[in-house]
């Protein structure tokens, strides 16, 4: 069974379909690419999966369960995490605190215990800080842990957002243009991390315009054009599909 399955999914704006009759899936342990020209409906798809947009029709299944009407916060607790095309960080907070925020989803101690500084709250915070520092090390950002997130470069801010998403311990990770603004060396370092995450059994759905990155990383690629799926398969065959070349690559 697929971790994620979209069945006849559609979303209308002003009576016009932005996404229509979409059937696609993302498997555990695999990285699925979602590509297409600007305005194809890719971010709309991710927003529907994450509960930020309601479906006009169809179903979203998470591990076989219909989650089409669930709210974003509930879907996050169920194991869906995402990054955004436009970075969303607490700019004045430290890098460490931005990442630590992702772990709060799994806090077990009560608000009262935290306010009173009880030993249980102290132990939990210490454990979460240790896991935060593991993520910082994994992404090569330990030296920047105490810097304000907003003071860092665009590429580093992207990394912070990815670490915060991983801190939620997702079953399904939605990445919206995660390497935009990065050079190939930076992008390929992240590709290695994403592969490790997938190898741990997480399903990854990746929106990306960098075709070199897609070729290198994705196990399966789906192509949207005008809100409809026009091709899917392995990266090489999809990118060389005449329909994709015409609609997306422009030649």
TrEMBL record:
Q: Which Gene3D superfamilies match?
A: P-loop containing nucleotide triphosphate hydrolases
Where is the ABC transporter domain positioned along the sequence?
4-251
Q: Which UniProt keywords apply?
A: ATP-binding, Nucleotide-binding, Transport
One Pfam assignment: ABC_tran
Gene Ontology MF terms in the entry: ATP binding; ATP hydrolysis activity; L-isoleucine transmembrane transporter activity; L-phenylalanine transmembrane transporter activity; L-valine transmembrane transporter activity
Can you list the GO cellular component terms from the UniProt entry? Answer: plasma membrane
Q: Which GO terms describe its biological process?
A: D-alanine transmembrane transport; L-alanine transport; L-isoleucine import across plasma membrane; L-valine import across plasma membrane
Note the PANTHER family from the entry. AMINO ACID ABC TRANSPORTER ATP-BINDING PROTEIN, CONSERVED COMPONENT OF ABC TRANSPORTER FOR NATURAL AMINO ACIDS-RELATED
UniProt name for this protein: ATP-binding cassette domain-containing protein
The protein's organism comes out as Pseudooceanicola pacificus
Q: What is the lineage of its organism?
A: Bacteria, Pseudomonadati, Pseudomonadota, Alphaproteobacteria, Rhodobacterales
